[in-house]
């Protein structure tokens, strides 16, 4: 059995990391830009979010075909259970967040852009629904900071304290020359 995740799993993982950082930065930093530039920050945010959704679904499908490589030395059942719970939270978060965002944008009833392309929208706006979706989207986005932080902290804890291969399994392999 292999000791690392497959190449596609590693690539998707790190690409999702970059896209999540891009989506969060677009929203956090748009307030520093002149108002005329804010639509561009929104386009980046939405485009990153849609990309995250597609990649997380792809990652889930790849994960069904390629199970996780074993951790050595083997962690306790409790730590394995917590890891599964953490991964479930990440999958749910980064599928639900973009879906809420897409539903919100669609129900605004006006034109919007992703990847430089006009996207479909509802014929009539439903601002009550949009406000509710926005509240959930922002709540989950805030929760995302903590979930991602715990995920990264757990990987580092495994690497430096437990001295197992948890972190190394997701690192790209060095090519031999």
Relative strand content: under 5%
Alpha plus pi helix count: 4
Q: What is the class in the CATH system?
A: Mainly Alpha
Strand order in space, largest sheet:
1-2
Q: How would you classify the helix and strand content by structural class?
A: mainly alpha
Q: Mean pLDDT, rounded to whole units?
A: 95
Task: Please identify the oligomeric state.
Answer: single chain
Estimate the helix proportion, in percent: 55-70%
Radius of gyration from the alpha-carbon trace, in angstroms: 19 Å
Query: What's the CATH architecture?
Result: Up-down Bundle
Unreliable spans are none
Give the overall shape. elongated
Q: How far is the first residue's CA from the last residue's CA?
A: 24 Å
Number of domains: 1
Major β-sheet, in short? 2 strands, antiparallel
List the helices and strands in order: HHHEEH
**What is the number of strand segments?**
2
CATH T-level fold name: Fumarate Reductase Cytochrome B subunit
How do the helices and strands line up, and which of them pair or pack?
Layout: H1 7-29, H2 38-65, H3 77-107, E1 112-114, E2 117-119, H4 127-162
Antiparallel strand pairs: 1-2
Helix pairs in contact: 1-2, 2-3, 3-4
Can you describe this structure?
- Helices cover 67% and strands 3% of the residues.
- A hairpin with a 2-residue loop joins strand 1 (112-114) and strand 2.
- The longest helix is centred in the last third of the chain and has 36 residues, at 127-162.
- With 177 residues, it is mainly α.
- Helix 1 (7-29) packs antiparallel against helix 2 (38-65).
- The chain has a two-stranded antiparallel ribbon with strand order 1-2.
- It is found in: Cell membrane.
